[in-house]
Amino acid sequence: MILFFAESLIYGYQLLKSIEQRGVFAIIFWLSFFLFSFVHIFLVLADGWSRYQNYKRVKDQFFIYGFQPRIAENCIGSKCQRSAANVAAEELGIEDELQNYYYKRGVKWFHYIPYFMLRDPFFLFKNSFWSKTFLEKAYTSKFDYHRLQYESSI
Q: What range defines the domain where residue 76 resides?
């Protein structure tokens, strides 16, 4: 987010200079770069929000059911979702089981591009992409893990 914010400042400055000079090509050029970086600030925030909702949901599911392949499979689609599941699994002490499952499914450390992007080049035009990537519904955890941790240490 900081990178996109810095880019927005730089491109915005260049855009203002090109507006002063009234160069149409330069205005269009710098405007496109400015809009790209400025919109990405909000996309990064929305993506972070969505992954946090995934984390809370997966942690509750792992806590209730233990490690289940069907739960892990729901998060296999992208690196960010796998990271959210990893953090939840690590906190519950089942990270090894999750890692073994992903290894058996062929997930490698360098698989950054979400699998659905490789399968469907028109993913940008699908409602499911936008709702699952940036507009995940708010999820309230069913458990107070801090209180549970405190009680278990007593």
A: 2-153
